[in-house]
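Page 47, continued from p. 46.
Same chain as before, 161 aa.
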Amino acid sequence: MSTPKKHTLLVVDDEADVGDSVHDLLRREFNVLKARSAEEGLNLMRDNEVHIIMTDQRMPKVTGVELLKSIRTGHPQAIRMLFTGYTDLDSVIAAINQGHIFRFLKKPWQPEELEDAVRDAAAEYERLIEQADLLEKLRLELAHLRERITALEMEVERLRR
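Result:
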């Protein structure tokens, strides 16, 4: 029996202790990467297959919403989570309404709450990947059927002559 592949979780927070605590809590179940800035997080995403990204909203230079928005096109299946210790409802509402995040967490969180949220994100990632695979199979089948129809039309045309 093979061990299932661990999902990779990227935690982006300018406070090192947050990344360390998430790592300590989830390292057995997930491959946890830590970044102290949006730039460092983007570099890690270039070098690693990241399935889930969890970022703080309030960071220097780039907000969590801006980071999540920027990765959306290059990593459409990456599940995006946002957390903050502040009640910054306008940015959270904007992120949710624009579809940039899967889940919002408020600091401080309970360990069980964080574990459940990341597990839900991993399940959502798997659902999206399965859906993308199915769509690709359907596209290939449709292309095959179109080729077959073209061949049949050519055969019918040949028989008419």
